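Appendix B, record 7
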Amino acid sequence: MPLDPDAELMVKVRRGSRAAFETLMTKYHKPVINMIFQSISDPVEAEDLAQNVFLQIWKTRSRYKPTAKFSTWLFTIARNMCLNEVRRRARHRAESLDQPPKETADGTEQPLQVADPTAMSADDAALRGELHKQVEAALRTLPEVQRTAMMLLRHKEMPYEDIAKVLGCSLSATKSIIHRARETLRARLKPYLRP
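Structure tokens (predicted):
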């Protein structure tokens, strides 16, 4: 069975190819940061943990076995690193995990992701921005496993089978997790949805 292109690149990384590693980092750096950010809500720490994910991949490259899609393997590593960070924070309560998003110097909320550059009216942009803010806030209230599943489904459009592997649970459990997350989000976002 042919490998997915990313797994082929990782096989090259296993052999020591820095160029293949750079290619994978370029492709997956922002998605990994976004996934981590969904768990810890700290953009600086998300960047640091993403760097650690790729450092871990480089250090353990000789043990890579292309038994699953590369993205599944990568997001499993990222999820484990997030869980370790959440546990570390729980032991060393420096700040609340439920802390609201940080504000910039001018008092505006720090964006969760790069804004969509497509042109639209100011009213439409404001409505879209408000909806985006409410969706992100609702996602942050989900339990970690539901938040991770939704992020993989939403941002990476990962198949349920791969999400199950990342979460380390069965396909039926994954479907149930996603269903519960959607129901919770639907209830929390009901005031913002059209009738």
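Remarks on this record: Helices lie at 5-14, 18-40, 43-59, 70-91, 122-141, 144-155, 160-167, 171-189. The chain has two domains: 1-94, 120-195.
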